Amino acid sequence: MLALLKRRLKQSLERFSPSPLGREAATAGRANAPRNALDPAALSRLGASPLLARVVVEGFLTGLHKSPFHGFSVEFADHREYVPGDDLKYLDWKVYARTDRYYVKRFEEETNLRCYLLLDCSQSMDYGTTGVTKWDYGCFLSSCLAYLMLKQQDAVGLSLFGDKPGMFVPPRCRSSHLRQMMQIMMRQKPEGRTDIGTSVKSVLRNIKRRGLVVIVSDLIDSPEETAKAIRLIRGHKHDVIVFHLLDAAELEFPFAGATVLEDVETGEELEIDPAALREHYLEKLRETTAYYRKAFMESGVDYQLIDTRNPYDTAIAAYLNRRAKMRG
Q: Among 88, 163, 158, which residue's Cα sits nearest to residue 123?
């Protein structure tokens, strides 16, 4: 019974939306805070576009004081345009003298990396109480990461998944590829249940070369089965980073008074007293995230819990750290 209640609480939170008054109260503490240029709610009102993804990523890179790019291969391949934050020791001054533009020596290791974005499009992602849903956040985060990957001359692909494998876009390394992937994400409507295990097995059949797999999901599935599926990816020698997206209401359980929660993926309803269950829910949430951290760390998987109120720079920095480890 406890396990069933746990699952119902965990999933039914995805559909519950506080009243407009409750939503205003939840954000009142942030109303006077300085607006960050990477704020998800502010950016969501502008609409997703490759240009906006570029502005966010370039703005983030400009603010870097130390380059995350290191450990280049010794085998020189060609050049790529300098990105703010790159290590200046890799600048090719002879090329600069001829062209009056900054270029970084690109090495063979960089030309071989393929990145695969696995984006959860299940119904539970279509939830948000802070001006942006987890789906919106995941789509724009994926777009920013794709832009950054292409900027680094990496090939990037996209795979959508829910209760079954969705659209798969093979990796490409050209600027027009970002627009194609963004169009696919914008046409997709979150639907169905989450089955990470089945989806991962299907995606692995489409991944022909070793690379970096980036999973963007709320992980609303069995933690044990989820960890098993992601360990399977590692078993195929891929590097993996997981971005675990959660809404503020899922992290804080702010509900008050008699509340009816609905499981968006099954339609089941459950009437609860939030005050009586809040501590139990939060404890179960802590246990679940701790389980993920431990299981992924033991498998060599990077894990990043993301509050969808937070700017995108946390996730971008986590990706760059993983990318740097791969080159080290």
A: 163
Provide DSSP, 201-228. Answer: HHHHHH--S--EEEEEE---S-HHHHHH
CA quadruple 274, 279, 282, 288: dihedral sign: negative
Answer yes or no: are the C-beta atoms of 170 and 127 closer than 8 Å: no
Pairing assessment for the beta strands 239-246 and 212-217 based on DSSP bridges: parallel
Q: What is the pLDDT of residues 81-134, one digit of tens each?
A: 777 766 677 777 877 887 888 877 655 444 458 899 999 999 999 999 988 999
Asked if pLDDT for residue 17 goes beyond 60, the answer is no
- DSSP string covering 276-295, please? HHHHHHHHHHHHHHHHHHHH
Q: E strands, 98-174, where?
A: 103-107, 114-120, 155-161, 165-172
* Phi, psi dihedrals of residue 102, rounded to the nearest 5°: -90, 125
What letter would DSSP give residue 322?
Answer: H
